[in-house]
Recover the amino acids of this structure.
């Protein structure tokens, strides 16, 4: 048995972790994966040569490189029996926020809320793909990932077209009060999740750390939508809403392109 440590320079959120898990899922020589997202490190316990594992990681273009490989006698690995449960939990939370924000975004005519909802949907896709990938063939995983990636891009392009229409046309200002209220509710929910995760006894576990980063990223976007709502009212302009919408749509497309790289 060997212990190989990779540095993954672009692994900064749970999406990258799940993409790596999907990519390495069919390599039988892997006994365990240990992710350290804050330090951008991946520890792989494996038998045999490392070449196939290294090639798969490099193909993701996440800046992966080997730091060290040493023999190890470790044989008892935590298979993380709660992995599926955690994925389902995160998937349900993200999809619930997608429904809430897409509905209120359409009613209030806020591109910021609509874009944030699609970001939630994009995260749901990543975790959904991870769930479908368990026990699935490589061909099936690639097919599902491709469908999810193209669907995200299509939604983001539609969003960009709507932003351009609103920028060059005469459009009623978005309801800033709905933007502020919904973003505050989402901020509180993500804040509670972050607090619970940080107080958890298992906060050093890879998935818990990933969930902490996930919640932190969502909080940043929530604050962006909240500030946009305040600026819409203060400036009496829809420009702040269009700017935050454009920013989040770009993030959605970036995530979709990473999925398509699978």
């Amino acid at each position: 048995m060997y212990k190989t440590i990779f540095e993954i320079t672009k692994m900064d959120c749970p999406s990258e972790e799940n993409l790596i898990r999907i990519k390495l899922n069919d390599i039988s020589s892997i006994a365990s994966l240990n992710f350290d997202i804050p330090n951008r490190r991946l520890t792989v316990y494996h038998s045999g040569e490392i070449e196939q594992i290294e090639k798969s990681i490099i193909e993701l273009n996440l800046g992966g490189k080997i730091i060290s490989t040493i023999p190890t006698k470790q044989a008892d690995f935590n298979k993380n029996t709660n992995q599926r449960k955690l994925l389902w939990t995160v998937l349900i939370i993200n999809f619930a926020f997608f429904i809430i924000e897409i509905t209120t975004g359409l009613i209030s005519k806020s591109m910021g809320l609509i874009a944030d909802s699609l970001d939630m949907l994009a995260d749901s896709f990543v975790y959904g793909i991870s769930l479908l990938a368990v026990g699935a063939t490589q061909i099936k995983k690639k097919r599902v990932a491709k469908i999810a990636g193209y669907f995200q891009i299509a939604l983001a392009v539609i969003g960009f077209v709507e932003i351009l229409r609103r920028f060059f046309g005469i459009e009623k200002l978005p309801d800033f009060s709905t933007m502020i209220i919904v973003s505050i509710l989402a901020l509180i929910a993500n804040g509670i999740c972050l607090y619970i995760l940080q107080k958890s006894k298992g906060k050093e576990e890879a998935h818990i750390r990933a969930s902490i980063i996930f919640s932190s990223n969502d909080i940043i976007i929530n604050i962006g939508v909240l500030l946009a709502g305040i600026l819409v009212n203060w400036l009496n302009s829809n420009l702040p809403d269009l700017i935050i919408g454009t920013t989040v749509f770009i993030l959605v497309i970036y995530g979709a392109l990473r999925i398509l790289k699978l």
